[in-house]
């Protein structure tokens, strides 16, 4: 990696003041060209999720549990895009190259917290599909507006409260390695890599969080679909089976879009030290941008109610 002497000095291990953000190292001359697709992706993330929220908010027929959870997902994806847009595009546009420790810690808090929120919302959506298919007669009585509000508050508390201790610890670490991050945004594991303090608490605590939130959510989602599959296969009519499966396709796609990048990023940080920096940057950007970009597309195409109202919205704007 090529770094000027000024840049090396500014990120030297003698200070905790700032960290160097990296995008595609060695390709700095191409950043103006890279900014075009990245700016387009962020515009699509913001526009797509805002449109989903607008359609659900303004259409009374979509004021149902399934779409309330979808609005939570869209809001989470929107916040994820907003939490990283300044640093990612700031590097490509030449606005910033460094980030101070407090801002870095704050950004990592929201990135990881929003990842936990998305995992929890996907679990809530799996529970919604399970009730709708396996216990349809009691669907409206189980998923009341009050209960959905409580689920939403529980998701926020679960996701943002338990990550506070390791995030606070980052403030008091001594960062004696060169302050060069692996991505154009801040991640907890990236800061741990630069720390020379005792990081065992953070390592074990965050591993416990990953197991108790991400892994547990994935297991429960899988278990819910086993029960759904068992219930659907008990239906005699092929047409009814197809209809029931269709109601789950969007959610299954959203689960895959979320878990595949996050597992890939975890594996790269854990076992991919021999990989090129470009691979780390690419996987990191996929983790940050792929779910917020794809979820509005998936639900706009695969969910008939959203698809119909999106077309109607575009028709109104056209005329």
From TrEMBL:
Q: Which GO terms describe its cellular component?
A: plasma membrane
Which InterPro entries does UniProt cross-reference here? GPCR_Rhodpsn, GPCR_Rhodpsn_7TM, Olfact_rcpt, OR51/52/56-like
A single Gene Ontology molecular function, please? olfactory receptor activity
SUPFAM superfamilies associated with the record: Family A G protein-coupled receptor-like
Q: Which domain of life is it from?
A: Eukaryota
Q: Where is the G-protein coupled receptors family 1 profile domain?
A: 48-299
Q: Which UniProt keywords apply?
A: Cell membrane, G-protein coupled receptor, Membrane, Olfaction, Receptor, Sensory transduction, Transducer, Transmembrane, Transmembrane helix
Q: How is this protein positioned relative to the membrane?
A: Multi-pass membrane protein
Q: Which CDD domains match?
A: 7tmA_OR51-like (cd15222)
| Organism, scientific name | Mandrillus leucophaeus
Matching Pfam families: 7tm_4
GO terms in the biological process aspect are:
cellular response to lipid
Similarity comment: family membership: Belongs to the G-protein coupled receptor 1 family.
Instruction: Give the residue spans that cross the bilayer.
Output: 33-57, 69-96, 204-228, 249-272, 278-301
Q: What is the name of the protein in this document?
A: Olfactory receptor
The record's subcellular location field reads:
Cell membrane; Membrane
Q: Does the keyword Secreted apply?
A: no
């Amino acid at each position: 990696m090529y770094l000027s002497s000024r840049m090396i000095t500014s990120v030297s291990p003698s200070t905790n003041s700032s960290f160097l953000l990296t995008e595609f190292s060695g390709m700095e001359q191409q950043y103006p060209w890279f900014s075009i697709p990245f700016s387009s992706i962020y515009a699509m993330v913001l526009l797509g999720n805002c449109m989903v929220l607008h359609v659900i908010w303004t259409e009374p027929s979509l004021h149902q549990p399934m779409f309330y959870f979808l609005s939570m997902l869209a809001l989470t994806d929107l916040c994820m895009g907003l939490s990283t847009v300044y640093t990612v595009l700031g590097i490509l546009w030449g606005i910033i190259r460094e980030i101070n420790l407090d801002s870095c810690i704050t950004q990592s808090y929201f990135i990881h917290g929003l990842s936990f929120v998305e995992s929890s919302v996907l679990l809530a959506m799996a529970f919604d599909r399970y009730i709708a298919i396996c216990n349809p007669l009691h669907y409206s009585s189980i998923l009341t507006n009050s209960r959905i509000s409580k689920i939403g508050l529980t998701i926020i508390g679960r996701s943002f409260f338990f990550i506070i201790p390791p995030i606070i610890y980052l403030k008091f670490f001594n960062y004696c390695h060169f302050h060069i991050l692996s991505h154009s945004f801040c991640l907890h594991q990236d800061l741990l890599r630069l720390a020379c303090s005792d990081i065992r608490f953070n390592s074990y605590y965050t591993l416990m969080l990953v197991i108790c939130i991400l892994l547990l959510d994935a297991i429960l989602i899988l278990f819910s679909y086993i029960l759904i599959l068992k219930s659907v296969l008990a239906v005699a009519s092929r047409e009814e089976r197809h209809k029931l499966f269709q109601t789950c396709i969007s959610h299954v796609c959203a689960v895959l879009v979320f878990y595949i990048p996050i597992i890939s990023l975890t594996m790269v940080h854990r076992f991919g030290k021999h990989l090129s920096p470009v691979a780390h940057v690419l996987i990191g950007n996929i983790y940050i941008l792929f779910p917020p970009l794809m979820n509005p597309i998936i639900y706009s195409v695969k969910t008939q109610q959203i698809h119909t109202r999106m077309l109607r919205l575009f028709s109104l704007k056209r005329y």
